[in-house]
Design brief:
This protein is mainly alpha-helical and 154 residues long. The chain has five helices and two strands; from the N terminus they run αααββαα.
Length: 154
């Protein structure tokens, strides 16, 4: 990360960096995160892949769920309400003092014997349920189709 001080601190803290749209980076990050999870490290992953402009929850990508399943670790869904007002996608730092932000930690979801798409759907539902109505999203057609898929992994 090319942010002075913050990027250096993130490297010292052993953050894992992803270069978007770079398949080599995706494979490297997947292997690194899965290994860290198997070794007992906790990870914070944002399954949407980016921040939404309006704060409405978008569909989740599969990567985080594939890694959690491969490492056989539980997923702890977390809802963060109202943060979009102070941290829009274009902001590197909060635009002002954070007020009326809340975090809701949901019960963990076991990954053993649960298809990836079911994990993704369960997590999305948990996160969505903890948001205020104006931030709640609608499941994407792809998520609905995948959740209805018999094997649940595609």
């Amino acid at each position: 990360v090319k942010i002075p001080v913050i990027g250096y601190a993130m490297k010292l803290a052993q953050h894992v960096f992803l270069k978007r749209n770079d398949i080599t980076s995706i494979d490297t990050v997947t292997d690194a995160v899965t290994a860290k999870l198997k070794n007992g490290c906790g990870m914070v992953l944002f399954a949407e892949g980016t921040r939404s402009k309006d704060g409405v929850l978008k569909a989740f990508k599969k990567g985080a769920f594939k890694m959690a399943k491969a490492a056989n670790v539980r997923i702890v869904p977390i809802s963060i309400g109202n943060l979009h007002r102070f941290m829009p996608p274009s902001a590197l730092m909060p635009l002002g003092p954070l007020r009326n932000i809340y975090i809701k930690v949901h019960p963990p979801i076991d990954t053993l014997d649960v298809p990836v798409n079911d994990l993704r759907a369960q997590t999305w539902e948990a996160v969505n349920s903890g948001l205020p109505p104006y931030q709640q999203g609608e499941p994407s057609k792809r998520m609905i189709k995948a959740a209805n898929n018999k094997d649940g992994d595609e």
